[in-house]
Design a protein that fits this description.
The chain is of the alpha+beta class. It has 28 helices and 15 strands. It has an 8-stranded antiparallel sheet. It has a 5-stranded mixed sheet with strand order 5-4-1-6-7, sandwiched between helices.
């Protein structure tokens, strides 16, 4: 409490009014140990701008005044960027008394009012949102015919599935069709989740069209209400994230789990965004599918069709599963129609095709070049004009084909490539990208780097340094090394990643791969400021990443100096949203796409620079205060110019 008051005392007070209160959270929460309790939270709002700041949930027994005071300090430092209001309004006498005892001496007036007119709409909006978004599904045992024995059979199958980790071999683009038994309505097409190492589980779709519709939701802007009905999921999560009824069920009956983050949640997405639970028959089917996949080998997957006899509840059930995309592989165009974006690496097949054609038909005149245009104009990726001849060429061509498809088919093609040419670096890239664990990814990318070095030979690294990317044969090696560097960063081995990325820029200073954007945050995180400054100078550009990195380096060199402020003002002109995101207590996730100057660009910049700013004492406080001051001064020059003009006329 003393620290909170000290922070408020040091801030300048402004003629602003805040309204605040403490309220009951609309749903019970689970705390450490699994106990379910009621919680409270505080909310603050600026009466003029309407800016809202909800505080953290408090499941304990602290005084309401403490909860509100803590939220008020966060509101001042985060939402108001250090501009402390000189008034706070509450409508609870006890809150008013508590806050007056704490705040009066530091210049903040506390007023007791009858109604919180600015805060009430924000509170209603929050509660309406919570009511719409957090309605818990009915209990898993509420369905007709459901028994705890059936739930236990499902829990046991789910634990076996999680331990087997089939996502090591399958991605969310691998469709699995259930031939036997006849699936419940809307559950005949299965997809395993987990290859991305974030969400693990199994999804049952009613049709290929429904699956494609789900893929397109991420780019169409539609809501979950647009999903077809009967989309069923089994998702693994922590106990605290289960519905209360499920958590109590698992604890009370000691149902099996594979680990603390492997509690299975079986839900159905119904029409219009409603949530339901599987019937007893559907849950039994899910248990059988989970157990069948848990006992499936890589060889069986690659066969495209296999059968498993599994024990479900109190009987044996036979499951026959097929992978239609292995039995009848889709064309690149069909993958695009499903909603998958094209892989740019696949287009290098055209360049390889042209190089082979020129090797066999060297142009002797302009007419020959015109013929070249006629041969390749409008030609699709899967219809090359020439055929690869050597084992190395055939292996690389298989990799180009793999880049044009998705899922398990990529793995099959990459392994075929390695059988033809053990030095095919792109084959290792593909296998690394499909790897189920970080250790496997690191190993496979390192194998790709070694394979690329063998294929190219030592002389190329000396003779072609500086123009490496212009030689198409070097690109698989470059991809392997960049992939290895990125995996090393995720493994917490940033120092090793720096050396790889610096070597990539030495070989290809044109930086066609965007290595500099990966290298810069790691140099700043490691405190290698001289190298970071050289990189910024080498690639002088008008981007938010570069500008805010330059501002951080200036602050590290000279503190809150005039030079550092100049760099920050330049950064603010490029993108004004970054300071607010850098001040967040949690690192921001970067969106896949952004426009220059947008909040999305700011999110990408903040995601990359957040660790470096956090590691620099005083940097967050400085950038927050200075950026807010810059906003406050926007109108001041106009007022000064108007005043000067009047004086000049006198």
């Amino acid at each position: 409490m003393v620290d909170l008051l000290r922070r408020l005392r040091e801030l300048p007070k402004h003629d602003l009014v805040c309204q605040g209160g403490v309220f009951a959270w609309p749903h019970k929460v689970r705390i450490d140990g699994g106990e379910i309790v009621e919680a409270r939270f505080a909310m603050c709002v600026d009466t003029e701008s309407g800016l809202v700041h909800p505080g953290q949930l408090d499941p304990g027994d602290r005084e309401p005044g403490q909860i509100l005071l803590e939220a008020f300090v966060d509101y001042v430092e985060q939402t108001c960027a250090g501009n402390c209001p000189n008034q706070i309004e509450v409508n609870d006498p006890e809150l008013a008394e508590y806050l007056r005892d704490q705040l009066l001496a530091i210049g903040i007036e506390v007023r007791l009012v009858d109604r919180l007119a600015a805060l009430a709409p924000a509170l209603r909006s929050l509660f309406d949102y919570m009511g719409a978004q957090t309605v818990e599904p009915p209990s898993l045992v509420a369905a007709r015919g459901m028994t705890i024995e059936r739930v236990r059979s499902f829990a046991d199958a789910a634990a076996a599935f999680y331990r087997a980790a089939p996502w090591r071999h399958l991605t969310d683009s691998d469709l699995i069709r259930v031939e036997v038994p006849k699936p419940p309505k809307g559950m005949g097409l299965l997809v395993v989740l987990g290859a991305g190492r974030s969400t693990f589980g199994l999804v049952a779709y009613p049709s290929l069209a429904a699956y494609c519709r789900f893929l397109q939701l991420g780019t169409s802007g539609d809501s979950a209400e647009s999903l077809p009905g009967n989309l069923t999921q089994v998702i693994f999560d922590e106990l605290a994230d289960l519905p209360d009824a499920d958590g109590e069920l698992w604890q009370q009956h000691e149902l099996p789990i594979a680990g603390p983050r492997a509690y299975p949640l079986a839900i159905k997405h119904l029409s219009k965004g409603d949530i339901g639970r599987p019937s007893s028959k559907e849950l039994e089917f899910l248990a059988g599918a989970l157990r069948a996949l848990a006992t499936t080998s890589e060889e069986e997957i690659d066969s495209g069709r296999w059968t498993k006899d599994v024990l479900v509840h109190n009987h044996t059930s036979r499951f026959t599963l097929t992978m239609p995309d292995l039995l009848d592989p889709p064309t690149p165009q069909e993958w695009l129609q499903r909603g998958f974006e094209p892989d740019r690496r696949a287009h290098e097949r055209v360049f390889a095709d042209m190089q082979r054609y020129l090797r066999d038909h060297p142009p002797a005149s302009d007419a020959d070049l015109e013929t070249l245009n006629e041969v390749f104009a409008g030609r699709s990726l899967d219809e090359p004009a020439t055929q690869p001849k050597s084992p190395a060429e055939r292996a690389q061509d298989l990799c180009f084909q793999a880049f044009a498809v998705r899922g398990r088919r990529r793995v099959q093609l990459a392994r075929q490539a390695l059988e033809l040419d053990p030095n095919c670096a792109d084959a290792y890239v593909i296998l690394a990208e499909q790897a189920g664990t970080l250790d496997d990814e690191l190993h496979l990318f390192a194998e790709g780097v070694a394979a690329g070095e063998r294929a190219l030979g030592a002389e190329v690294f000396t003779e072609a340094a500086g123009d490496f990317w212009a030689i198409s044969e070097t690109r698989p090696y470059m991809r392997s090394r960049l992939g290895l560097a990125s995996a090393l960063v995720r493994a917490g081995r940033g120092g090793e990643a720096i050396e790889h990325n610096q070597e990539l820029l030495r070989l290809n200073p044109n930086d066609n791969q965007g290595v500099r954007y990966v290298l810069l945050p790691e140099l700043l995180r490691a405190g290698r400021d001289v190298e970071a400054a050289k990189l910024l100078k080498q690639y002088d550009e008008e981007s938010a990443n570069w500008a805010y990195a330059q501002a951080l380096l200036a602050f590290r060199l000279s503190g809150p100096s005039a030079a550092a402020k100049r760099e920050l003002l330049r950064a603010l002109r490029i993108n004004q949203y970054v300071p607010e995101l850098l001040a967040s207590e949690r690192m921001i996730s970067a969106p896949p796409h952004y426009a220059i100057g947008s909040i999305e660009e700011a999110a990408c910049c903040a995601a990359e620079l957040w660790p470096a700013y956090r590691a620099t004492p005083g940097a967050i406080e400085w950038i927050t205060a200075e950026s807010q001051q810059a906003v406050l001064e926007v109108d001041r020059p106009q007022r000064n110019r108007r005043g000067t003009k009047k004086r000049g006329r006198k």
